[in-house]
């Protein structure tokens, strides 16, 4: 999430106009109102700078977390952690692209990010996930019947 300066500046100006109206009604001099405006504007800019740095730092941390997570798990490691034999068979027989999609979802990527990374349409990503989900649900239904 980035700091939207124009939007925040608009909110600040509206707040400041209301405050100055109250100050004028209370009898404060224009010099003091102008001085307060200057101080508040400095505070606004300091906060803007903070959020600009905070946002970019958060992006770096998010990217770093994704890269670390990607290194922790691959398709073989995922299959090693599957205890259910039917589920293991379904995942083992799943095509590599679909497995890559599933792993990227586990790693925390959005469908849009996966789409860009794999150069596939978002609809294709959803379709592949849906088909795999149907296979797994079908397997679970058979297990319940047994």
TrEMBL record:
Domain of life, per lineage: Bacteria
GO biological process terms, semicolon-separated: DNA-templated transcription initiation
Record-level Gene Ontology MF annotations: DNA binding; sigma factor activity
Pfam families for the chain: Sigma70_r4_2
Domain named HTH luxR-type: residues: 108-135
Protein's name according to its UniProt entry: Sigma-70 family RNA polymerase sigma factor
Organism: Mediterraneibacter gnavus (Ruminococcus gnavus)
